[in-house]
Every structure is written in structure tokens, then in C-alpha cells.
Amino acid sequence: MGFFDFINTPLAKLFGWMTSLLYEFFGNFGLAIIFLTIIVRGLTMPLNIRSAKSMMKQQTLADKQAAIRRKYPDDKQKQNEEIQKLFTENGVSPLSGCLMPLLTLIFLIPMYYIVREPLRYVTGVSKSNISQMGELLGISGVGNNNIPLITRLTQDGKAMSDMVGKGLIKVQQIPNMKFLGLDLGATPAWLPSKIKSDLSLYLPLLIIPVLVLVTTILQNVIVNATKPDAKQKKEDKERAKNNPAFSEQKEPGAGTATMITKIMPIIMVVSTFMLPAAFGFYWIAGNLMSMLQQVLTYFMFSKPYEEKKQELLEAKRDLFKKKKALAAEGANGKKGKK
Question: What per-residue confidence (pLDDT) applies to 147?
């Protein structure tokens, strides 16, 4: 076993076990993926909330950050050091913003195994039995990709009967890969010649990469719009036009998060044309869950915080106006006495 397998096989087995339970309950691979996504994203909800709270703390330090930039206008290294020190003293993690994107990437790894090896990870057929069936039926590479074997057993009744007779597989261990008229075991095609070869199969599958792209972009838009620091960054950009000291500070980890956000739509669309449609289906379900999670976090934590902050700001402005008015009245009174 290589290092890559050593790291990722435990995750694949865990996700496979959960998918297996869900598949046994629903009897459908598509539904199993949907509910697996709900469970996984539900478990990451506390991390999303923690990230939002960390961003809120970071917001409260905006004025102090601006002061540091004004103090060291020509020394970016010193700015970063002082701001990092400020974050450490106040328990703020500047890397919290890229935690969820990285987790999302990590969770794709076990799904890669599950969609390529559903016989092994979902319906519990041993790898040795899968390899034996591949050899007997003349199908190579089935140990790492069960889909050709599933297709053969589904379409060839004699092959299925022979494998069952030899005790290598049970009929109920052939997963139902159909969902809403789509074959989640097939790989979407982009070449016109490939699509024309089986229009009924490949044409409907094109909806998978389209939805992957649309939901990924939409998710990024919603995440950026509902971040606790979204409004602050917008205000800083406006102020930076007149005062460079308020220019947006590139925090540690921000570059990583931005890079992931930009390349993710490309990576995911390309991957949907290389892997079974179930992989893209998982990504779509994950995007929808992520959007719901982000909106819930926003209304539960970020929005109340922003409203409270706005109330305090308005109260501060009112107090300043009152003091200014009192000062003006006092000045006018002194002039009248004169």
C-alpha cells in the first residue's frame, strides 16, 4: 500500500460505510449520495460557525489594523508582523477562511473511491472477488474501477448468472446507479462523436457538468456576499480610494482561499468529464448544502452581529453630533456675553 492509499483509505472506508447504510435504506445510489452529503455538511456546520465567529473578531480589530498600516506605511513586512501579533493576542485565526474550502477538497478524495468502486465500498464485494470476475469476463482494471464490471453484469444475464453461481457476487450487490433518468455510473462526454454514439445516455448527462459549474459559481458568490467581513471590506475599498492606509490587507491564508475559489469551478468541470456522473452529482449536492449552510450561518450569527455593530456606530455618531451641537451652543453663548 502506497502513502496516498495509506492516508485516504480510512476516509474512503468511513464514507463507504455511511453510503452503504444509506444505500441499503433507500435502495438507490443517487439518494444515498444526497443524504451522505447532508450528513457530512451537517457535521461541518460547527466549523463553519467557528470560521464566521473568527471573522467577526477580526472585524472588531479593523481600526487597530488600520492604525498599524498608518504607523508603518512603507514596511509591509512590519505591518504583517504587527497584525499577526494583534490576531494572536485576541485569539483570531486568519487561516479560518480557507479551512472549509480545504475540507471540501479533502472530502472529494473518498468520494473518488466510492464512485469508481461502488461494489467494494458500497455493496461490500471483496476486492479479490472483483478481480476474479474481471479476469473471468476479460475486463481489465476492475480493481480500481468497478463501473465496466457493473455495466457488464447488468446487461449480460449469462455473465451475471455465472458470477452468482461461482459465489463471487450476489444479485442484490449490484448497485442501482439510475437516478432521475440519469446513469450515475456513466461518465459524461463532451465530444460530439461520443455523445452521438448514444444520445439517450450521454445527452442527459451533460446537465451534470452544467449544474456543477453553475452551483460552484453561485456558491462562491453567496459565500463572499455573506461573509462577516464582506461589508467591512466593501467600506475599506471605498475609503482606500481617498486614503491608501485603508487598503485591503492581505491576511495569511487569504491568497490560498482566493486561489481555491478561482480554480475550483475549472477543476470540478474537468473532473466531471473524467469520472462517473455520481462524482459530479455529489459535487452539486455539496454546493447546494454549502449554500444553505452559509445562509443559515449568516442569519444566525453574521447578520445580528452586523446589525448590532451598526446600532453602536449610529449611537456613536449621534453622541458626536450632540457634543458638537453643545460645543457650538457654548461658543455662541460666549460670543453673546461679549
Answer: 92
Residue ranges of the chain with per-residue pLDDT less than 50: 1-4, 245, 252-253
Residue 212 belongs to what domain range?
3-123+175-337
Amino acid (one-letter) located at 166: K
Q: How far apart are CA 152 and CA 130, in angstroms?
A: 13
Type of residue at 202: Y
254 vs 297: CA distance, rounded Å: 20
One-character DSSP codes across 70-115: HHSTT-HHHHHHHHHHHHHHTT--TTGGGHHHHHHHHHHHHHHHHH
**Per-residue pLDDT at 231:** 62
Q: How many domains does the chain have?
A: 2
**Distance in angstroms between the alpha carbons of the first and the last residue of the chain:** 95
User: Are 250 and 285 in a shared domain?
Assistant: yes
Residues 255 and 153 in one domain: no
Under 8 Å between Cβ of 306 and 60: no
Instruction: Note whether 8 and 111 are within 8 A (CB).
Output: no
SS3 178: strand
Q: What is the pLDDT of residue 169?
A: 93
Per-residue b or e along 198-228, where b marks 16 or more CB atoms closer than 10 Å to that residue's CB: eeeebebbebbbebbbebbeebbebbeebbb
Return the SS3 of 127. Answer: helix
The span from the CA of 28 to the CA of 39, in Å, is 17
| 206 shares a domain with 161 | no
Q: What is the pLDDT of residue 165?
A: 93
Question: According to the model, what pLDDT value does residue 1 have?
Answer: 46
Single out the residue in 174, 207, 236 at which a domain terminates: 174
DSSP secondary structure letters along 34-74: HHHHHHHHHHTHHHHHHHHHHHHHHHHTHHHHHHHHHHSTT
Residue 257 and residue 263 in contact, taking contact as beta carbons nearer than 8 Å: no
The secondary structure element, H or E, covering residue 183 is strand 182-183
319 and 202 assigned to the same domain: yes
How confident is the model at residue 244, as a pLDDT? 55
Give the separation between CA 265 and CA 157, rounded to whole angstroms. 40
